[in-house]
Specification:
The chain is an all-alpha fold. About 80% of the residues lie in helices and about 0% in strands.
């Protein structure tokens, strides 16, 4: 039918556009071959991304461990903030907020006032 022929033509056009985009990416690779300084820069960035991954894993473990401590010590503290220590996931989000120093006073002030 004519609907199928229109759909087939649209699919071919989509594949051609996709192939042209792929060829544009290959132009960028040609530029890296022409300039060795860009290649050195790219290798340095990839090596630093691997190290940043390990740092993120270490930060995740430390947030998880501090969330467990936070839940066991500060579960009963009443606060008006959304960030609380009621469960592990909530405590992990709270500890991440404290790590990036975003609204940390809203989290710490009730704990300081209610804990001896």
């Amino acid at each position: 039918s004519w609907v199928m022929s229109v759909l087939d033509e649209e699919l071919r056009n989509f594949l051609i556009i996709r192939l042209l985009r792929l060829l544009r990416i290959l132009r960028i690779l040609k530029m890296f071959r022409a300039r060795p300084q860009l290649r050195v820069l790219l290798e340095g960035l990839s090596a630093s991304l691997q190290s940043m991954g390990w740092v993120a894993i270490l930060l995740g473990f430390s947030i998880y461990a501090s969330a467990i401590i936070g839940v066991s010590c500060f579960r009963e503290v009443q606060t008006e903030s959304k960030m609380k220590f009621e469960g592990i996931f909530e405590a992990m989000m709270t500890m991440f907020t404290v790590c990036v120093l975003a609204d940390w006073t809203d989290i710490v002030s009730p704990i300081v006032h209610q804990q001896p």
